[in-house]
Amino acid sequence: MRFFLKTVGATAVVAACVMSGTAGTAQAQPKAAASLYAPSSLVLAVGQGEEADTATMQRAVTLTCAPKASGSHPSASAACAELRAVNGEFTQLVGKSPGMMCTKEWKPIVVTVDGVWQGKRVAWNKTFGNSCEMRASIAGGAALAF
Known about the structure:
- It contains 3 helices and 4 strands.
- It is of the alpha+beta class.
């Protein structure tokens, strides 16, 4: 008799599951979005040399702009604001400062940026004739001044 009650009880549970539609099916929960922000994480570097591939790196910093500015960049918040203003177009960050005079010495410096900006892969570099030309070209800017 005891065996009969256990069997009937188990059968009743299975029947209840079948009738409710839950027997044998896993109820998958929709995957929540990992982030509301497209990733923006960069490595910026300065090296001695004409080409990014062969330059001797002197310093490098990290910069993350979403969801908030962070990284080893000395002015992360200002750099992120500057990059947002030019929509991540690094070429627009380089200009010419009319008040700064530099020698014509050829001691090339290359600035490189690698990573992801608003979900898109970024690889950019710019070679300057010397460190004075580099400082003159980025005068007043925060993103490339590290």
